[in-house]
Amino acid sequence: MYVDVKIDPGKSDISYTDLGQNRWKVTLIPKDAFGNHFGPGRANELDIKGNAETELTSSISDNLDGSYTFEVSSEKTPEIVVNQPGTEPTVWCKPCHEKDTNKFNNWLLWLLILLIIILFLLVLFT
């Protein structure tokens, strides 16, 4: 019995290289939830499209190591959609996969505001 790899965006790797002039080189290493690679040798089975303002501008190159490379054109950060039969489409975008460093900074800002309010109330009522 054969069970196909269901691509998991949390386990897969994707990298973006800005080529300039709204062109991006994307390298995708699709993996399932257990870390199994989708490939090599399956570029023709990958249904990759651009989302919103992203357009696929090259064919998908199989790097024969489990990774696939292609180019897209996008005025903004590219969004990539991978369709796989029997599953929901998988969407990748550069900001979606970068760590959000603002969460910590926002938390500190709210703490600072709260401390200022407490100090203000202490000065006002003493």
Individual helix count: 1
The CATH class designation is: Mainly Beta
Q: Could you please say which CATH topology applies here?
A: Immunoglobulin-like
Derived structural class: alpha+beta
Strand percentage lies at 25-35%
Radius of gyration: 22 Å
| Poorly predicted runs of 5 or more residues | none
What is the annotated CATH architecture?
Answer: Sandwich
Question: Number of DSSP strands?
Answer: 8
Biggest β-sheet, characterized? 5 strands, antiparallel
> Would you list the SSEs in sequence order as H and E?
EEEEEEEEH
Structure description:
The chain has 1 helix and 8 strands. The chain has 126 residues and is of the alpha+beta class. It has a single domain (13-124), classed as Immunoglobulin-like (Sandwich). The strands form 2 sheets. Strands 1, 2, 4, 5 and 6 form a 5-stranded antiparallel sheet that branches. A hairpin with a 2-residue loop joins strand 1 and strand 2. The mean pLDDT is 83.
Q: Which descriptors apply to this entry?
A:
about 130 residues; alpha+beta; Immunoglobulin-like; 1 helix
Summarize the structure.
This protein has 126 residues and is α+β, with helices and mostly antiparallel strands. Helix content is 18%, strand content 32%.
